[in-house]
Amino acid sequence: MIDGEYAALDVWDITGQEKIRGRVALFRKKIDGLVVVYDITNIESFVSAQKWVYSWMVFEKCIPLLLVGNKKDLEDDRKVATLQGQAFANSLSMMFIEVSSKNVDEVNKAFDLLASKLVVCISDKRNNNKSSYPCIMI
User: Fold this and answer.
1) Which listed residue, 3, 42, 91, 117, has the most CB atoms within 10 A of its CB?
2) pLDDT 10s digits, 68-100
3) What's this model's pTM, rounded to 2 decimal places?
4) Three-state secondary structure call for residue 69
5) CB atoms < 10 A from the CB of 125, how many?
6) In contact, 122 and 5? CB cutoff 8 Å
7) Do the beta carbons of residue 25 and residue 59 sit within 8 Å?
C-alpha cells in the first residue's frame, strides 16, 4: 500500500535479451513504469542499460522510469561510480537507486519508489491532470 492506495506490480524480467530489444514496440502499450538494472561492477552492463533506455525512448508515452545500480555490496569491485549512474538518470529525468539484491529491504525500497510514482500517475490520469512526477517519454 502506497499513500493509502494499493499498487500491484507485474514484473517482466527480460534480462537484457538482445532478441527482445527489437520487440519493444510490442510491450510499450502494456507498461506503466520501467525498471532498468545494471551491475555496478561491470561497465558493459551500464552501457547496455543505457542502450535499453534509449531503445524505449522512441515511443510517445510518458512513464516513470527507475534506473537501478545492483551489487552495491561489492563496493571493492565497483566499476561504475554512483555519480555516473545518477548523472545518466538525471539527464533523462529518471529515478535512481543503488541496491544489493542480497538485501531484501533495498530491493523493496526500489519497487516502493517506482510504485509511489505509479500511484501519482494513476491519480493524475483519473483527475485529467498533467503528470506531476518526472517521467521519461518512451
Assistant:
1) 117
2) 999 999 999 999 999 999 999 999 888 999 999
3) 0.81
4) strand
5) 11
6) yes
7) yes
